[in-house]
Amino acid sequence: MEPHRIVSREEWLAAHKAHLAEEKALTHARDALAEKRRALPWEKVGTGYTFDTPQGCKTLAELFNGRSQLIVYHFMLGPDWEEGCPGCSFVSDHIDGALQHVERRDVAYVAVSRAPLEKIEAFKKRMGWQFRWVSSFGSEFNYVYHVSFTPEQREKGQVYYNFETSDVTKGGFDSDELPGLSVFYKDDAGDVFHTFSVYGRGGEPLIGTYTLLDLTPKGRDEKRNMMEWLRHHDRYDDVRNGADTGTAETPKNEAGRGCH
After folding, report:
1. How many CB atoms lie within 10 A of CB 146?
2. What's the pLDDT tens digit per position in 150-171?
3. Kind of pairing, strands 107-113 and 133-135?
4. Which of 27, 119, 137, 167 has its CA 20 to 30 A from that of 255?
5. What is the distance between the alpha carbons of residues 58 and 72, in angstroms, rounded to a whole number?
6. Can you list the domains of the chain with their CATH numbers?
7. Which of 34, 112, 122 is nearest to 74 (CA)?
8. How far apart are CA 113 and CA 126, in angstroms?
9. pLDDT digit string (tens) for 76-93?
10. Three-state SS at 259
11. Lowest mean per-residue pLDDT among 20-24, 89-93, 219-223
């Protein structure tokens, strides 16, 4: 760290009070934005998507699990990937504790990936997670919600992501899967509506680790991006012991078919 300015208690307090005013303004602005988000128009979901789950094939409506609201996390784990995306895993490390409270507020949560269910279950067991995670393999779900991309789309070099068409190699990141989060509502008649989706850094509020790091003098301490330091939580010992295998996903295995 660069040498930091050291001041008297009085000057420290004055600076922190001024900063507190900005923090409060940001809190109020965030609350106002959340209210606008809840007021956004909805679209009716007409396609009967089905998913492979440990309890058999389920429709999107059945994933609500008796609740009226559903959060779907689009987890990057493709059919031929060996393991889940480290960034999505970073997000998911924060989920189980929150669900103890979220599920009491009429909200269901499920992660969805295109990988076959057996691959999802194996990685979930390795990570020690408890949240529900299902497979959309063979379904158009991921493509409709713009988090998976066909070889033809990638070959053209342009994909639709985060509500705009972008260069697939922008920033040196080229993948058949990208992260996102979608929210749905089911009314008393059983009709399902898509209320909101967010992509890229829009899912960052789920990451409590960043909230803690942002309080510290060094902050996130990321030179270029999170992938420089981030590992699956069972790989940090590899880093300390000099046996780090890196974070890149290397597709190798062919996928089997599920209920589709």
Report:
1. 18
2. 988 888 888 899 999 988 666 5
3. parallel
4. 167
5. 14
6. 43-206 (3.40.30.10)
7. 112
8. 16
9. 999 999 999 999 999 999
10. coil
11. 219-223
